Structure formats: C-alpha cells, structure tokens
C-alpha cells in the first residue's frame, strides 16, 4: 500500500457525505457516479472499514464514517482554498520572473524601458541575467528569454517581436587606407573581427538579389563574446566587423561607420520572446510578453540605407 494519503478518495468521500448522494456528489465534482463510487470504495478498502450504509433508497454514514467526515471535509475545503488562491495568483501579474537577455541588447534596449514595466506592474519583480551565451531555460530555471537569432530554438515556444538586420561595417579611416570591398570575397585576407557566440559557427553568409551566395569566415586579431567589444577596433579604423542593427545604427547615423557590401545582405534574424513550454503561461510572464511586444515590435534602432 502506498504511504501517500488517498487525497482523491478523501475528497470524494467528503463530497458524498455532504450531499448524502453519490449522484449529487458526482455532479458537483464533474465526475461519473462510477468514478466516485470506486474512489470511496478504494478508500474504504484502504482504511479497512465501511464509511456508508447503503440501501436502495437511503445512504447514511456509518459511525466510523461520521468520525472521518469532518476531517475529510476540512481537507477538501483546504484544497479548494489553495486552488482558488493559486488561480488568483496565476491570473494577476505578480511574483518573480527570471529573464535572460543578450547583454548588449539588454543594456541598450531592455533596461531603459523596465521602469515603465514596473510602474504598470508593481507586484512583479525581475531577476535579469545579461549574457550573450545561450541560456538553457529549462535546465537553469528561467521563465523567459529574449533571443536574437535567425531561427528560434525549436524546443521553445517563441513569439517573434521584430526583425533584426546585420551589417558589415568599417570606419571611414579604414576605407581610406584599404578601399571598400566590392565583393564578399574581397574580405578574405582582411582583418575581420569574430564573435564567439554565433549559433552556427562564426561565418558571414551573404546573398544578393540575383540569388548568389557567399560565405566568409572572419579572421583577425580579435574575437569577442560581446559585440560591443568590437566597436572600438572598428572606430579606430583597424578592422571590419559584423554588427547587429541595434548596435550599428547609432554609428551609421552619425557616419562614424559605413555599411559595406550594400548590394549584398546577411541573413536576417529576429528578436524573439521565448518561454520553456507551451503550457499556459503565468500572468506575470504574459504581461511581460505583451509589454515587450508593444515596446520592441517597432524599434527606434531601424536603419534605412
């Protein structure tokens, strides 16, 4: 016999005792009469005593049943209260959200808007992890993440918020010294800075309007785990780098950087809000998803060449 109490049997017994009818208890619990009867019978067998005297017209508690009915009723009521409290908690945005966000994007575009989120949802708190490394949401116990990728992880539930373009850039000083590349192959042999956390190895994949494709592996004096660390080398005119739109647009606008190979494009990714599973999300996570959808779906970092 299992050492776990038969909570289901106790609940069914409590309801039958309250209703004085298996049929009425079954209706109240949304179960079949046979299911309730089996549950009470299983409890009687476990306890080794009858709980009801049954006749064709009447159902009455035995003396043993009377001693148990009050305790079973308290257990049933406590379970109902616990469920009601849990439903209220899940329906109202409150509690802690563990959120993973890429570092540069989080510092530039997430942290500045969080005050507005907390004003709207004062009962929610966020544990924000900023890292460019891919986080195991399930294994590390995260509620959600923002990810910038060409495709979302198929094991996660992803909501696309917006597209994110990527640009190969250099400083005007670099172009004065080395000249602009006319074709992606012209980058071979040049100092091109690398990024350690690219999902499918550090390769720049170009395509043009004619459908031609070219893949270049960047080689240069610096490889980083955060794209912002590439910026000083580019601004100094020492190398070429590939930067996401949400970083590059600032420097393209004021001409401190120039977009290269504009007849070609790199594979366009997207910004995704991802969660570990398809189960119903708590209200706090849904509130954060909606907030990001409103604030990040039409971003100000857009760059039109």
How would you portray this structure in words?
This protein is an alpha+beta fold. The protein folds into three domains: 85 residues, Arc Repressor Mutant, subunit A (Orthogonal Bundle); 97 residues, 3-Layer(aba) Sandwich (D-Maltodextrin-Binding Protein, domain 2); 102 residues, D-Maltodextrin-Binding Protein, domain 2 (3-Layer(aba) Sandwich), CATH 3.40.190.290. It contains ten helices and 15 strands. The strands form five sheets. It has a five-stranded mixed beta sheet. The longest helix is centred in the N-terminal third of the chain and has 29 residues. The radius of gyration is 31 Å and the shape is rod-shaped. The mean pLDDT is 87.
Query: What distance separates the N and C termini?
Result: 73 Å
Domain tally: 3
Output the CATH class name of the largest domain: Alpha Beta
How many DSSP helices?
10
Nearest-integer average pLDDT: 87
- Quickly give the structural class: alpha+beta
What is the name of the CATH architecture of the largest domain?
Answer: 3-Layer(aba) Sandwich
Low-confidence stretches: none
How big a fraction of the residues is strand?
15-25%
Strand order of the largest sheet: 4-3-5-15-6
Helix and strand element order: HHHEEHEHHEEEEHEEEEHEHEEEH
Q: Specify the biggest β-sheet.
A: 5 strands, mixed
Helix proportion? 25-40%
Assembly category: single chain
Rg:
31 Å
Shape: rod-shaped
CATH fold assignment of the largest domain: D-Maltodextrin-Binding Protein, domain 2
- By DSSP, the count of extended strands is 15
